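User: Could you check the structure of this?
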Amino acid sequence: MMESRYGDLLQRIKLQEGGLVEIWAVEASYDGWRQVVSGLAASGYEMSLTKNGVDVQFFLDLDMFSEEVEDSYNLQMLIGGQIWTTQFFSTDVIDFQGSPGSIQTGEDLDSIAK
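Assistant: Sure, the predicted structure tokens are below.
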């Protein structure tokens, strides 16, 4: 049985079946990205970076933002038992995508909100 606190939200996530759950903030900037990534690193979240699927040393630079899929960077971050990713398409939008299959309980949602 789903907890009443998140019951409706968990049901809507469950119905996405194969879709993505996204967390995003519009009207962002490169400085906003730097603050978010620095804050996540300082909080001890495990992060890794790939370029075109190949592991690279973690960094954040304005040149890595591109709307082109080829030559793209992908940041992967572990939050609780969930993997969240972003591809740095734009400095204007901070967004992370997760799998709805990894969000099944109130505890899963709590781990995202921390």
